[in-house]
Amino acid sequence: MKIATYNVNGINSRLPVLLRWLEETAPDVVCLQELKAPQEKFPFQSLHDAGYSALWQGQKSWNGVAILSRNTSIQEVCRLLPGDAEDLQSRYLEAQVQGIRVGCLYLPNGNPAPGPKFDYKLAWLERFQVYAANLLKSELPVILAGDYNIIPTETDVYKPERWLSDALFRSESRQAFQTLLNQGWTDALRKLYPQERLYTYWDYFRDAYRRNAGLRIDHLLISPSLAGRLIAGGVDYPVRGWEKTSDHAPVWVELADV
């Protein structure tokens, strides 16, 4: 079973890229972030024609998350992160898909930091930590996949000294990510590639992709019951070089069948 996460940076403007990638790689489950489309503008029919069921939570101009499933249905669990009834940003979607609980998230960027946006990021992370801990207690097979907007370690960023004051790399953000790992979640790509430099995002400016001046901010955290089934994973680097593509590349893991 192949599960992927992909920040599409505007699903309608990147739809040809998304459909090409789906056709070439055929992931079973896909978590999408940054749809940048209201609910009614989600390209459901195009994805259906490509063989995917979809559940989505749109939002005008920004944010937005979706879960796709190839040739099977999706059962919705929730479409907002619990803990703050006033937070209506479309950043979390959870569903039961092909026997696995899938949480798709688009964590706040938090810049400029310090400031209100960074405060919101940290508050969101606190809620997420509480919710993630409860998911672990359920002992369900769970994967939490998406754009975390966190650079966990120096190995995950080109020239880390340039990012010390950025919200993605500030100590508070990295510690929050480590807290999730301490709960019992496994950073799937790091389990497979403990020392390798892996990037999932490259800025459009300064020829970052060609220079491989990137960041690893898209992550797949898996529960203990799934960690033993992890057999492969990677980053689809070439997709970042396609015409009119996102500034992120798709990230994926493969789990052994039970």
In short:
This protein is an alpha+beta fold and 258 residues long. The protein is built from 7 helices and 12 strands. The strands form 2 sheets. The protein has a 6-stranded mixed β-sheet. A 6-stranded mixed β-sheet has the order 5-6-7-8-10-9.
What letter string, H or E per element, gives the SSE order?
EHEHEEEEEHEHEHHEHEE
What's the CATH class label?
Answer: Alpha Beta
Structural class given helices, strands, pairing? alpha+beta
What general form does the structure show? globular
Indicate how many domains the architecture comprises.
1
Structural commentary:
- The chain has a single domain, classed as Deoxyribonuclease I, Chain A, CATH 3.60.10.
- 26% of the residues lie in helices and 25% in strands.
- The protein has seven helices and twelve strands.
- Strands 3-4-2-1-12-11 form a six-stranded mixed sheet.
- Strand 6 and strand 7 form a beta hairpin.
- Helix 3 packs parallel to helix 4.
- The longest helix is centred in the middle third of the chain and has 23 residues.
Question: Topology of this protein?
Answer:
Blueprint: E1 2-7, H1 15-25, E2 29-33, H2 44-49, E3 52-57, E4 65-70, E5 75-78, E6 92-97, E7 100-106, H3 116-138, E8 142-147, H4 171-183, E9 186-187, H5 188-192, H6 208-211, E10 218-222, H7 224-227, E11 230-235, E12 251-255
Parallel strand pairs: 1-2, 7-8
Antiparallel strand pairs: 1-12, 2-4, 3-4, 5-6, 6-7, 8-10, 9-10, 11-12
